[in-house]
Design brief:
Layout lengths: L17 H15 L3 E8 L10 E6 L4 E6 L1 H4 L11 E11 L4 E11 L2 H17 L17 E6 L4 H13 L3 E6 L7 H14 L11 E6 L13 H9 L4 E5 L7 H5 L2 E2 L3 H8 L3 H36 L3 H43 L2 H73 L1 H6 L4 E3 L17 E6 L2 E6 L29
Parallel strand pairs: 3-5, 6-7, 6-8, 8-9, 9-10
Antiparallel strand pairs: 1-2, 1-4, 2-3, 4-5, 11-12, 12-13
Helix pairs in contact: 4-8, 5-6
């Protein structure tokens, strides 16, 4: 019999499992909030996790909701999440049964108004400026008259036509256009690729390498110009080895590429004006410089002609020029004869001195000197030879004496050693004779062998009728066993001593 608790009341309400209830709540939320736009501030953003998904929260003053961006969606976002950025998120509300919580799955993300965009751009500008991408020392000079002009812009807009018309009016140049999208999600990547592509062109290749690059776009809203504020575009402009001119928007529009470019133009038309001079003005300047150069050459020629005439008037006549050298020649001729005589005497004295030296160096004198030196050397050689022979003879004599002495000592040592070895041998032989079997036989022992020559060691081997050979000290003889031998018996006990009749003398034992 079941007893109901007073707290238990009968009910016909259906029972839900936890999974069924979670699934029903998930379907209800997704049906009611399948598409929502939520405005809030990003909180708890830490970047993508290992799987590539992004988790953070959206909050305002009174509430907070979890948010998730899947890996595939995150790679396509034009505006990337940043901590503290106010955004408008578009997506759907769903639940996560594992935590009994709800969250928004974001499909797109955009800044909440111009203020948020400006804050985002200011933060990015400060960060890139801290890396030195906007330093003035990194900027290059724009060439005065480039041969090839590269233009990065849309090929279908009015911007490229304005640039081409302005270049044609001022100074026609060879223009290379790299077509890109100047608005949209892929705009930043295409512009950065175009800048890098122009820089990758080789010098002297089939496609000429530009001497200057113009990145141009017409005016638009801040959202329209966001592609030129992306970090990839700014880094590509800063890394460009070709001088780069930024012409994005109107004069009042500023983008981050303007800070990284080598020169900023207020408009695309202004960029064309900055990269080439006016051809007519340049030709007029060249003509003016040519006229000025011709006048300067004429004035210089006239001045040099006047100076030459003045110098010609100041030059002396031939007689005045030759009078001084003629007098010096006469004086030298008068001094020449005494000088020649002195010079001859000096050479004569030098010749006499050389003759004396030559006599001393004549072959006969040198030969006599060499003969005397040779005689002296021969005497020294003979004396040295005699001394060497005497010393060698003395050394040999001493060696012979030493050899005789050593031979005598060796003979005595050999005789003494031979005597000691003979004594030791005789002693050992005496010991062998005393310990050998012959000495034992001499003491009365005998060796008994059977017919095969084996020793008979016990009486049990002596069988009746067995022929044996007996060896004694002075020979051997044969015997035949007539009766079987027996082993040694124990010694008989000592007979008891008879009692001696008592007498007056007692027994000491």
């Amino acid at each position: 019999m079941d007893i109901e608790s007073p707290d238990t009341k009968p009910s016909n309400a259906p029972e839900w499992s936890v999974s069924d209830l979670s699934g029903a709540l998930k379907r209800t939320l997704e049906d009611a909030f399948g598409f929502v736009r939520v405005r809030g501030e990003i909180s708890g953003y830490r970047g993508p996790v290992a799987s590539g998904h992004v988790y953070f929260s959206l909050k305002d003053q009174n509430a907070k909701i979890d948010a998730v961006i899947w890996k595939g969606v995150f790679g396509r976002l034009k505006t990337r999440p940043q901590e503290g950025l106010e955004v408008i998120a578009t997506g759907k509300i769903t639940t996560f049964p594992g935590k009994s919580s709800y969250q928004i799955v974001i499909d797109s993300l955009e800044p909440a108004g111009v203020g948020a965009l400006m804050a985002l751009l200011e933060e990015r500008r400060k960060r890139l400026a801290a890396e030195g991408l906007f330093d003035e020392g990194r900027k290059q000079l724009i060439p005065y008259l480039p041969r090839v002009v590269g233009v990065v812009t849309s090929p279908t807009g009015a911007v490229i036509r304005d640039i081409l018309h302005r270049l044609e009016d001022r100074f026609p140049r060879h223009v290379l256009v790299w077509p890109v999208r100047v608005q949209g999600e892929t705009s930043a990547a295409e512009v950065a690729a175009a800048i890098a592509g122009f820089n990758a062109l080789p010098e002297g290749g089939r496609i000429p390498r530009p001497d200057v690059i113009i990145v141009a776009r017409g005016g638009g809203s801040l959202e329209d110009l966001m592609g030129f504020n992306e970090e990839v575009v700014v880094r590509a402009a800063a890394a460009s080895l070709i001088p780069l001119v930024s012409a994005v928007g109107h004069e009042t529009d500023w983008t981050l590429i303007d800070h990284a470019a080598d020169l900023r133009a207020p408009t695309p038309t202004g960029a064309a004006e900055k990269v080439v001079p006016v051809r007519a003005d340049l030709m007029a300047l060249i003509a003016d410089l040519s006229r000025r150069q011709a006048g300067a050459m004429r004035r210089l020629s006239d001045r040099r002609r006047s100076d030459l005439r003045a110098l010609a008037r100041a030059l002396p006549g031939p007689e005045a020029v030759l009078s001084g050298p003629r007098q010096r020649l006469d004086l030298a001729a008068a001094r020449l004869a005494p000088a020649l005589a002195r010079n001859a005497r000096a050479y004569e004295q030098r010749l006499a001195a050389l003759s004396q030296r030559l006599v001393r160096q004549s072959p006969s004198v040198r030969l006599a000197t060499y003969v005397a030196r040779l005689d002296g050397l021969s005497s020294r050689l003979r004396a040295g030879r005699d001394a060497l022979l005497r010393a060698e003879r003395l050394r040999l004599q001493r060696a012979h004496e030493r050899t005789d002495e050593l031979s005598l000592r060796a003979s005595r040592a050999f005789v003494q050693g031979l005597g000691r070895r003979r004594d030791r041998l005789e002693s050992a032989w005496s010991l062998v004779r005393s310990l050998g079997p012959q000495a034992v036989l001499a003491r009365g022992y005998a060796l008994v062998r059977d017919g095969s020559g084996a020793l008979v060691r016990g009486v049990e081997q002596a069988k009746p009728g067995l022929a044996l050979s007996v060896q004694v000290s002075d020979g051997s003889f044969d015997v035949t066993v007539t009766a079987g031998g027996e082993g040694l018996s124990p010694r008989p006990a000592r007979a008891p001593r008879r009692d001696v009749p008592r007498s007056g003398q007692g027994d000491l034992f």
